[in-house]
Structure prediction request, 1064 residues.
Amino acid sequence: MSLTAMTLLQQFVLLLAALALFLSFVLLAQPRLVAAIHVFAWQGGLVAAVTLTVAMAGDASHLYFSALLTFGLKALLIPWMLHRLTRRLGLARHTETLTRPALVIMAAVVLVIFSYWVVVPMVAQGLAFTRNIIAVSLAVVLIGLLMMVFRQQAVAQVLGFMSMENGLFLAAVSATAGMPLVVELGVAFDVLVAMVLFGVFFFQIRESIDSLDVDRLNRLTETNEVEGAS
Amino acid sequence: MISAWLIALLQALLCAALAPLLVGWVRKVKARLQNRRGAPVLQPYSDLRKLLFKETRVAHTASPLFRIAPYIVFVATWLAAATVPLIALDLPTARIADIIVLVGLLALARFFLALAGMDVGTAFGGMGASREMMVSALAEPAMLMAVFTLAMTAHSTSLVSVMEHHLADGFVLRPSYLFAFGALILVALAECGRIPVDNPSTHLELTMIHEAMILEYTGRHLALMEWAAQIKLLLYGVLVANLFFPWGIGAAFGPLALGIGLAAVVVKLGVLGAALAVGETVLAKMRLFRVPAFLNLALLLGLLGLLSHVILEVGA
Amino acid sequence: MGTPGRPRGSLERLERGLCPSYAGGAPRMSALMLTLLAPLIGGVALILTRAPGPAGWLNLGVSALTFGGAIWLALSVGLQGSLEGAGFRVDAFNVYLVVLTAFVGMTTSIFSRPYMRHVCASGRISTGSLRIYHGMYQAFMLTMLVALTTDNLGVLWVAVEGATLATVLLVSLYRTPEAVEAAWKYFILCGVGIALALFGTVLTYFASQHVVQDPDAGLTWSVLYANAHALDPTVMRIAFVFLLVGYGTKVGLVPMHQWLPDAHSEGPTPMSAVLSGLLLNVALYAVVRLKMLVDGSLAETATPHLAGSLLMGFGLVSFVVAGLFLHRQRDIKRMFSYSSIEHMGLMTFAFGLGGPLATFGALLHMLVHSLTKSAIFVTVGHATHIAGTQAIDRIRGLIRTQPAVGWSLLIGVTAIAGFPPFGVFTSEFLLLTATMQSYPWLTVVLLSGLVVAFAGLFRHLHPMVYGTAPEGQQPVQANMLPVLLHLGLVLWLGLAIPSFLAAWLDSATQLITGSHLL
Prediction:
């Protein structure tokens, strides 16, 4: 469906999705941890807004609930937990030095093109106005993945993971107008438990290597000396 | 036909005439925001007149290029500004109102500006020129990306057809336009030497860019350089205003349509100028080494504009 | 049987004649409920149990109860056909894995009771950690059983992700830098993989929306399977790639296997046993279920065997690479985890090959590999207690210090390397025969891979078992019952497969491939 044939509300959905993609880029290149958490919260808010707008534009009443769930989880609860953790870990003013940020951004642009290439044959026969967003959501997922690879800081890696989940929520809304309720609740539960466990791990990692720079977790290689028993 | 050319001429004159007013307006709003009374809005006109009648001194190390440069810079910039539809769309100049021509004319002006900056051989001039070239080398691709995004929607690189296409579509929320808008704003800030890239109101900082290049100019030459810079600001303002919000521009040549067109563009520029003043009050100038990151953001926005046009907006 | 649909197993057909009036329902559902509720309630109770002594026994009791439920469920499915309803679906294929999971869960809990007390007494973990261990052990069993029995692809995803979450704290239980690193790697890699699987699930749902009217049934596997031919092949093809990479990460397929050796070597040994013996199976089960959907969808297109070819490719690469890596290992648990990757690669390859013979072989291999590998890990746990280290160089002369442990390790490794008369030989023989029929030249690759893996295992094994024991090496208190049970079963399966099991595997084969072997 071409853009001019859509209603204003449907165009608004595309606009929000595009902004969510932009925030993925911002997240990728944001060296300040607290600012990155804020960006992530905004992205969650945008995904919730997309869900809400799809619900309004497509008369899918069950999506109101999932918009509320996404907003509560992704825009409020998880950012709040991360905030608290960074404060307790003394990372509130932490700034990470990024290696070759321009190159990483270019890689992310390539990922966007790749997602489009993957999705194009698939959406050719779709009819819903949200089908164009599938490529965007895949791009958000892949950029989250890139962030996990490229950042060395554990909290930043978790942000990458969570922004991948944002992309998945976006995909669920855009491709299918929401998953069945039981699945959506299950996924939300898993994400929440994962966040709690990440919190536990931040402390365990800091205890063991005195820092949250995950690159220093490099004891396990293929040819290391083995110590200790089990 | 003759009347169309007359209107085109009128529009070109209007560009040159309105440019100092826009600068005066921005300064006034800024002063008000900083709780000062500020100079009158018409002050830039008096400044220009004063400089035009002052004696022109030229350094004895200067080559003829130094004397010619202000004229070239002024004419190129003015020509570029004259091609951008200001109050009416379908002018004879529309045929050259092409995005690439526009970028080319601005590049010509910048080239001579930088040459003139280096000509006398002072440290400041050379420094300013090299910085200017760095900024423009980064800004130009971003600018092209942004305008290509618009051009892809209209299937033409002509400014007039982009605006006509936009008017014909009515109000459509385009993600690509949003990104292109952001990119163009960032590029405009960098190219016009505004905060946070350069500070237009000081000569005393080591970080200055534009002012460093024209430090050796006096009198008439300086007036032309200043005026060219003011026209450039107006040009970017009109570009942003009329490309993204073309409503109100005169589609016909009747006095009423032209009057509405003029009123619309004055209102749009007034709003943009006020927004610029607010932005300059809120933001601080960034260090020069941060400028590449700033312009990379513009480039990224331009790229995302292109991509989101392809991904989100092209119907099956 | 070419058209997708729910085929009927031979046992089912037979048994419908015996009790034609029985419609199933509440009593049968209660078997399933018992299997699922026992670990759920047990897990909560174990989190609350402070005393380490009773907790071990309670863990064992809950596992035994789960196993009882699984047997009941298997009997019910065997006698009355598959059970469907309330979002669950139990047929010959998954009830087989349910029983296997519950059995290995139970035997491992027998081993874990004294083992973890020993660890706790030596001060490596606190009693609080022990509570987490027991609670998470049951949570892990619960997620695996839910993943196996659910009929909903979304719930399957939630359960597999839940299994990661339940085990990740167990991997870092010892809190050494290595353990924390292994757990972080495990968490991040599996998290990423499983996120891609969710994207694949979303795409599957997208495809199903054009076919299945009821949106709530759009992820129900049985409904999707019945309509597989109508699913859009383009979408399903892309979805399967995501699903395979996602669940394949958990299977431990190369190159997504990086987490597996670390998690196995740094976690407590009972964890290694259940990870290797069960989690990998469940992930493979998910892949096979999804392959069935994709095969149905792609049947009419130019590439009907795309899913199978992908599985074969990934499986073969994992098989060969893991076999080579076996040689370089210095840590005994890492070595056996590479052996697990190798065997999972072989099974993936066999499921990709398709056809009744290969599928039958793969199912049998799942069983014997789980039994043997968990027995080996239990033995390795004792061996590392004897030697006080996991370094292969420093484990020496087990057979002299403690003959039971030495012999168990020797027999276990002989079995896993595929020697007759053990069950692994039977299944590998079936797999090789199936390969010979379809792709004769691949038999060479498989055979040389097996030889390489065998050499890798035995060059490390020989000094560990027969070498001279260091001065003062003392035997430890060891409960060899689980090992005996497992290895005995593997031996029995190698000598003769009981007819009920053969029929059972055959009906599972029939479910997967659409035709009988026997």
Observations:
- Chain A has one domain: 3-216.
- The radius of gyration of chain A is 19 Å.
